[in-house]
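Hi Y.,

Following your request, here is the sequence exactly as I used it, all 188 residues.
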Amino acid sequence: MSVLCQLGKPRFAKPETIQEYGQLRDVMIQSPWVAVDEHHFIDLVARRGTPFYGCLFNGHDLLTEANGQQKNCWRQQTIVCLDFDKCEVNPIEMTTFYHASGKTPWFTYRTFSDGLTEGHSYRLVWRVEDDLNLTYDEVRASIKSLAAPVAGFADKHSMDASRLWQGSRKGVVYASNSVAKLDLRSLL
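Below is the corresponding structure, written out as tokens. Let me know if you'd prefer a different format.
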């Protein structure tokens, strides 16, 4: 199976300035969607440092056509993530928690920030069911619902459906290609 997404170029570190983030974001939003094999996507993100969006954009220039807001050119969600920074719970325990609750992540990877401070920094990633009828606000509410059981651990900014996600070069902690896609509508 393939993943329809918007990818950046592989990186060795996350952007360090707001300007660098902005340039990366603008290039990626206006880039065409790509279909990438699931295994290749995991490799690109967790081992090669490739940034990605968990949603598809209409490709509009944010400054002229979307009033400067990503959500105004958001089209559909294909992937959702929860981000954990400096977390006292390790990534295997968090993945196991979600598995036990019936919401097994597709994969989990350590972020560029992992090991730089005390605690664990990692990301849980889910493929989601295609649903062209969900709105941006409904997707955001679904992500908040997904994070609710671990409130206080998940980064509040990871609830943004149009967030730019940084890859890593620290590798995969967990991956399963047999896991079912997450139905965001069931979380509303």
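The radius of gyration is 15 Å.

Thanks again,
Q.
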